[in-house]
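Hi P.,

Sorry for the delay on this. The queue was packed all week, but I finally got your sequence through. Input first:
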Amino acid sequence: MGASDDRLELAVDPARPTGRTLLADGVEQSYVDLADPTYLHFEYVRRMAAVTDLAAPTGDPLDVLHLGGGAMTLPRYVAATRPGSAQVVVERNPAVVELVERDLPPRPAGVDVQVADAREAVTAAPADAYDLVLADIYRAAQMPPHVATVAFAAEVARLLRPEGIYLVNVTDLPPLALTRVQAATLRAVFADVCVVADRRMLRGRRYGNVVLAAATRPRRLPVARLAVRLLHDPVPGAVLHGPALDRFIAGARPRTDDAER
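Then the structure:
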């Protein structure tokens, strides 16, 4: 997760001695297991990893762009599960990069880190360069508006190859208004979109993280396999797709750059 210019620290997990949590002003941002890069502590990270696992045959290397670096949990996971992958991590806060490089295991082979704003990095990137783009970008616990618009989604779509997938993490609370707007925004650009979350969140019973997946090719998302995978998670999740997603969006309007000016 991208962190703002806050007080940063790495805390030892008392329940797992090899676990480290990146904190910004005491708020959890990322989690890394020093001994096992495939251990994923946060449920939303497991949901993003589930889509990543199903995006291509097991073990095949992928070209991945990570928007929001944090402790590089998912870059480490991809490097461990898909050796030979080429990955770019964009993190706006140089203090996060410095702390992670100094106090956590070395970045895996094939991972390049850029200190930059996510939108500027996406705009400058070449077309058709990535199989996956993963966005986990936050400032003051909110997704910055300039990376949540139709124009930004269109720029991400430009970077993806025909089979590519875009994943977005959104923090939300009932009635999930931000998630509904972001789903509508992605649908304005991508042919296939789904929402993945804890069932209790979708019923309006808790706040937390929602993952959205989008692809430019119709019926590209592995929705059925993803639904089965989520049932076996320690925090079972559900997938909204097709008519169920239509009902969820319920008239929410896409966010545009004009609305942010």
